[in-house]
Amino acid sequence: MxxxxxxxGAELRIDGPVGRRTTCPECDADxxxxxxxxxxxxxxxxxxREPHAEHVLDKQASNACxxxxxxxxxxxxxxxxxxxxxxxxALFGEAPGPAEEDPRDALEALFRKR
Length: 114
Description:
Layout: H1 82-91, H2 103-111
């Protein structure tokens, strides 16, 4: 199963367990986080398919869950596509708006770990 970072989408080649302080070599995002776990599921109770897992509030921060199993975090990235937004607008008869930077992208770029 492919594994990749939820922060930047970089492919991860990690042999062995992922420690609590392990970070992505590309963007320095925490890897031992719920959003990178194979059990992460937004539709499940507490967003986890593992019934014995402790409840974790911040799903993107490092945690001490003993049940963590590295999954594909990039498939959970929330990427907002300008093309998708324009296609949706065209469906409802709206003209494409001016190109503008997504405020979330600007904020993440400002506070991204280096």
